[in-house]
Amino acid sequence: MKIALIAHDKKKQDMIDLCVKYRDVLDGHDLYATGTTGTMVMGETGLKIIRMKSGPLGGDQQIGSMVAEKNLDMIIFLRDPLTAQPHEPDVTALLRLSDVMNIPLATNVSSATIMLEDLKLRKQL
Prior knowledge:
Elements: E1 2-7, H1 12-21, H2 23-26, E2 30-33, H3 35-45, E3 49-51, H4 59-68, E4 74-78, H5 88-100, E5 105-106, H6 109-124
Parallel strand pairs: 1-2, 1-4, 2-3, 4-5
């Protein structure tokens, strides 16, 4: 499965904690991430992650392109809804495209946990 990991600045630690907890589940999947998020998660988990550019520098659009080409199966995008993002149009476009292409998208830790628990169960079968 091809999974994208994206986290706004104030959510990066949440992403790291999530990936540490579900490291065994994520291992073996093709992981993609925006620049800083990918670097931080790799540093804490040792997971192999293909890094795109930083979100504000086009990373969200690169992930969006993967969605449009049907090259992603799932996105975990931990968003910070309380802080204005300079690249908000890119974020909105990615969310919209995920809906159009019917790609599962978690935007908070609770929804991401549900998705990762499902992967965990499938891995055990």
